[in-house]
Amino acid sequence: MKAAFYEKCGTAHDVLLISELPDPIPGPGEVRVRIAFSGLNPTDIKSRTGFAGSKQKFPRIIPHQDGSGVIDMIGSGVTAERIGQKVWVYEAQSGRAFGTAAQYVVIPSQNAVVLPDNISFETGACLGIPAMTAHRCLFADGDLRGKWVLIQGGAGAVGTAAILLSKWAGARVITTVSRPEQEDVVRKLGADIIVNRHTEDVAERVKQATGGFGVDRIVDVDLVSNLNTDVTCLKKSGVISAYATEEPSAQLHIPFLKTMFEGFVFRFVFVYTMPEEARNEAIRDITACLRMESYTPEIALTLPLVDIAVGHEAMEQGKAIGKILISLE
Fold first, then answer.
1. How far apart are CA 165 and CA 153, in angstroms?
2. Residue 40 CA from chain centroid, whole number
3. Helix (H, G, I), strand (E, B) or coil at 324
4. Which PANTHER family match (predicted)?
C-alpha cells in the first residue's frame, strides 16, 4: 500500500515520507478499512512535533486518527456483514503505530462506525476527534434544547463541530472568531450570534443576547486565556468545558468564591480518555445528526497523499478555515 509516515519528530517537510509499505492484515476483533479520505487534526501535529516533550512511541508512524472508507477485510470474531460497509474511523492511531494516512488501516471493529448512505466520505473523514470531543463538551451535562451555548473559537475543528451539534440539538449558539473571514464560515454553520473577540466585548455581547442571564454552556479552546471572560458570561450552575491548550505548562487560577457561589462546573475533555458510555452516546448522536443531514462541515483543503506535508504546514500556520483532508482515492 502507499502510505505517508515518519520515523522521527520534526517539521513536516523534513520528516514526512511517502512510500510503499506492506498491506496490513486484521487480527482478532479487527477490521481493515480501505481509506478514501484521511482527516488531519491538531493532535496529529502535536504527535509529529513532540509536543510537551512527548517521545515517539513507535519507530515508524503513519499519522492521523480520523478517516473514512470501506471495510474490505475482517479478523476472527468479526461478523461477515461488516465487509463492504461504508464507515468513518476514529482513533485509528491511538496506541498503535499506523493511522489513516495510508491506503489501508487496521483498527478494532468498534472504531469503524457505519456511515449513512446519504453522507459523503469527505464528511465522514471530518468526524472522529472533533465531533466526539465536541459532543462530550456539550452533552455530558444534559440536554441542550432551548439553552444558550458560547463556543470560544467557533472556526476551529472542534468549534465547528460544536456549532453543528448544538444547532442539531436545538440550542442557541454564540461563537467567537478572531478574523473577519471566519465569520462567513460560522454563519453558514448556523451560529446565531458571532463576536469578533479582538474588536468586541464578548461578555457584553453575551449578556445582551441572554437578557443578562448568561449562557448555560461554554466550549473553550483556550480556557487559560478566556477564563475571566467565561466566568463573566456563564449563567448560574453553568458548565465550562475545556479541551485544548497550546502551552504544556499552562495553569488555571480560578476565582474560587465566585465559582462556588454561582455553582459553576468545570469539565476537562480529552477524547482518548472518554468513558466507553460517553463514546457510545457520541456515536449514537453523531449518527442521528448525520441522518438528518445536519452535519455539514467546512472543508478548507483536500490534498493528495503526496502533498500531506502541505496540509500539515497549513494547519500549523492556522490560515486554513475548516477541515484539511488527504485523499487516498
1. 15
2. 9
3. strand
4. QUINONE OXIDOREDUCTASE (PTHR44154:SF1)
Judge if pTM exceeds 0.90. Answer: yes
Residue 281 — φ and ψ, nearest 5°?
-65, -40
* Nine cell digits for residue 180: 473577519
Q: How far is CA 99 from CA 143, 213, 247, in A?
A: 34, 45, 25
Among 40-54, 144-158, 280-294, where is mean pLDDT lowest?
A: 40-54
Q: Which residues contact 34 (CB under 8 A, 6 or more apart)?
A: 69, 70, 71, 72, 103, 104
Give the phi and the psi of residue 166 in degrees, each rounded to 5.
-65, -45
Q: Which three cell numbers stand for residue 94?
A: 491511538
The stretch 228-233 carries a mean pLDDT of 97
Q: Calculate ∠ Cα 152-158-159, nearest 5°.
A: 35
Nearest by Cα to 92 from 118, 113, 78, 119: 113
Tally of CB atoms within 10 A around 37:
26
d(CA 217, CA 262): 14
Distance CA 299, CA 89 (A): 17
Cα–Cα distance for residue pair 293/178, rounded to 1 Å: 28
Q: Which domains does the chain have, with CATH numbers?
A: 2-126+297-327 (3.90.180.10), 129-272 (3.40.50.720)
Strand spans (E) along the chain: 2-5, 17-20, 30-40, 66-74, 86-89, 104-108, 112-114, 148-152, 172-177, 193-196, 215-220, 234-242, 265-268, 299-304, 323-327
